[in-house]
Amino acid sequence: MSFDFVEPVVFAVLAFGVIGAGAAVVLLDRITASALLMALTFLCMAGMFVLLGAETIAAFQVLIYVGAITVLILFGVQFTKQGGDRSYALFFQKQYPLAAALVAAVAIPVALFAFSFTAPVPQPGGGDIRPLATSVFTDYAFAFEVASVLLLAAMVGAIVLTTRDQREEAARRRT
Amino acid sequence: MTVPLGAYIAVSAGLFFIGCAGVLVRRNAVVILMCVELMLNAANLALVAFSRRFGAVDQRGSVFVIFVFVIAAAEVAVGLAIVLSAYRNRPVIDVDEIRTMKG
Question: pTM here?
Answer without folding.
Answer: 0.81
